[in-house]
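Field reference: sequence -> structure
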Amino acid sequence: MTPSTTRIAFASFIGTAIEFYDFYIYGLAVAMVIGPVFFPGSDPAAQALNAFLTFGIAFLARPFGALLFGHFGDRIGSKTTLVASLLVMGISTTLIGVLPGHDLIGWAAPALLCLLRFGQGIGLGGEWGGAALLAAEYAPEGKRGWFGMFPQLGPPVGFLCATGSFLLLSQWLDDAQFRAWGWRIPFLASAALVIVGLYVRLRLAETPVFAKELATRQPVRLPLAQLLSHHAAPLLLGALAMVVCYALFYISTVFSLSYGVTTLGIPRPQFLSMLCIAVLFMAAATPLSAWAGDRYGRRPVLLVAGSAAFLSGFLLAPMLGSGSPWQVTAFLSIELLLMGATFAPMGALLPELFPTAVRYTGAGAAYNLGGILGASLAPYLAQQLALRGGLAWVGSYVSAAAAISVLAVLAMRETRDKELA
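Structure field:
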């Protein structure tokens, strides 16, 4: 890798790492503290359900962010939109850190929380598509999957930082201090991380592929209209292919954390430590899956990983329900390993599904529509399924999500050798 390609790879990685850190600290806070702070007048089960609903708001916002930033990204380039998306996410996250709870401002607190959570979704919705395009369009020949991996490394690193920050707070603070003010520290730390990300992003140039497109033809006036009229099928298939990634991740992190602490009685610091171990498997699977995607093709890798994810749903009830820290850690590690394996090829696959004129809009929209289908209500539905039918039903949810993605990949053509033009 030359210094310029190293810089591009780092720029595509650092932004997604920061934005997913912001996104994940909210998910972890939902599992631990959002309910009591913002919905204190209800019983613990209702608090958890209300908190999980606020969690889902961002996933509803993410397609709007993808379309908004994708529109301008396809018309003026990704540099400006990547800076803007980082600012929107960082400001929303920092403001959550200073938002008063229900005891101070009543129902205005959860209302403002939902608004800021919507802002987080808008920011993240615009981030991934631009970062994926940056990596894929700069990639050397035959290395698009490998370069497309760098945005995909952002989520495990962001999650590890998010989990590690809450783990440290659990060691330093007692439960009362954590609920009173300690949980806000990771949100406030986002401001410093965003400054680092902005410094890197402001030094970027537009990709050669986009510069060539801009020099030879006028930008599409309405990228969304062209996307829906000419590329609806790859948009739908790309979104469905993403479903298993989201289901694996949010069932094995947000839902499992909540269930493990409240139902199984595993101490919060211990469960966070278990998640830190498990996410290392996700980080390890990401480059391996990206390399395999370049060598064997995107479809074979996704079909094998998706089929394994289908089978993993049958492990959820016996392993998570056992209450054994060893079995629970093993289950979390399996799920996050499979999440990395299904997620890594998407950094190349989704941009390859669309032409340059609508690539930002198409890749971002497919990625975030998959989030609505696979993640927006995943913790909430899993909580309801666990209450009504037990953990076996939650495992069936994971298997169903995997089956949907496998069928979508089967309906696609291989894109590994497609030129980005």
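Note: Residues 3-222+231-410 form a domain with the Growth Hormone; Chain: A; fold (CATH 1.20.1250.20).
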